[in-house]
């Protein structure tokens, strides 16, 4: 979009804001399965002229089915961790053949989404300090959830 010669005189920041606003409008319309009259009314409230509204609605209508398929593939609920596995790994040398002897943990989270079943596992590597920090944050989250359910 920034390379389009018709838009070269527009401030790039303004152009990015306009792009974000248009994307948000399209996504919300798709999410709500809004019809053309509802979209037109919304855009009229935003002070767009009739010609631009008609052009927007025509393009939206052409791509509506593909948008709904794309939004449907995203899912509606967050991933759920079903299992975790880990292993200790020692890095003995680095790329320059210097001895390092750095231990790290390889953690794999088995996840699933209630909308579409299983997903690829989430894997990451961390140091002992990072793993301790993660465990501490998970304990804090569990305590907060426990307190919230007791109310």
UniProtKB/TrEMBL annotation:
GO terms for biological process: sodium ion transport. Transmembrane segments: none annotated. CDD domains: Commd3. Residues 80-149 form the COMM domain. InterPro entries: COMM, COMMD3. It comes from the Eukaryota. Belongs to the COMM domain-containing protein 3 family. This is COMM domain-containing protein 3. The lineage of its organism: Eukaryota, Metazoa, Chordata, Craniata, Vertebrata.
């Amino acid at each position: 979009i920034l390379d389009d010669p018709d838009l070269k005189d527009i401030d790039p920041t303004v152009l990015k804001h306009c792009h974000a606003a248009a994307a948000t409008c399209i996504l919300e319309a798709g999410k709500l399965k809004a019809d053309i009259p509802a979209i037109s009314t919304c855009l009229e409230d935003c002070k767009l002229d009739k010609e631009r509204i008609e052009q927007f609605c025509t393009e939206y209508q052409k791509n509506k089915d593909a948008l709904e398929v794309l939004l449907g593939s995203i899912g509606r609920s967050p991933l759920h961790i079903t299992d975790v596995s880990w292993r200790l790994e020692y890095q003995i040398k680095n790329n320059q053949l210097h001895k390092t002897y750095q231990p790290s943990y390889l953690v794999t989270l088995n996840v699933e989404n209630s909308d579409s079943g299983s997903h690829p596992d989430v894997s990451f590597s961390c140091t002992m300090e990072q793993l301790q920090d993660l465990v501490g944050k998970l304990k804090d989250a569990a305590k907060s959830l426990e307190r919230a359910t007791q109310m």
